[in-house]
Amino acid sequence: ETGVTQSPTHLIKTRGQQVTLRCSSQSGHNTVSWYQQALGQGPQFIFQYYREEENGRGNFPPRFSGLQFPNYSSELNVNALELDDSALYLCASSLVPGGSYEQYFGPGTRLTVT
Amino acid sequence: AQSVTQLDSQVPVFEEAPVELRCNYSSSVSVYLFWYVQYPNQGLQLLLKYLSGSTLVESINGFEAEFNKSQTSFHLRKPSVHISDTAEYFCAAISSGSARQLTFGSGTQLTVLP
User: Nearest CA to A94 among A62, A37, A39, A56?
Assistant: First the structure.
């Protein structure tokens, strides 16, 4: 069974640039959620994708967008990067319906905006 | 709106001593509760969960948590900690009927001292 993987592990961008983060869900899972974890804080829900459609969104501006592909992998895109976007971005996969509400997390992508 | 509060940001404890990490939630609907652990530079690992049934849930490595509806709490306990338990611990909740988005507390850094 393959776990959740994310790429890249680290990256550095300049304010105003755009970034794409990638996530491969765990085998058999059909739902992907993205979370932002700022330094010293708990993860904050960005959005969730189910059947290639956005299925819930947290309090994040529209410059945070995403995609889910037929193989259930996902991308998180952030436009017009700001310094406050520096954080660990976590992807989590789950099985809906069923799956006992468990979400399985990847190792994260550390984004630094300078 | 749902919220999760972890009352202690840092908990230092000596090896083999007992520990309790406190978590309170607020929700107007039924919730499912989780504890996740995060080791340095890693993603989140599910430690244990409460969905229904017995209010006392246990993990494979000796942690336990008790769901207390009247006090809206889900405190994490271990009778004897090890150095390897040093990590950040996050309490999280999902409201029934939501898009299964996890709401996290701000985390508790458990440091086990020799």
Answer: A56
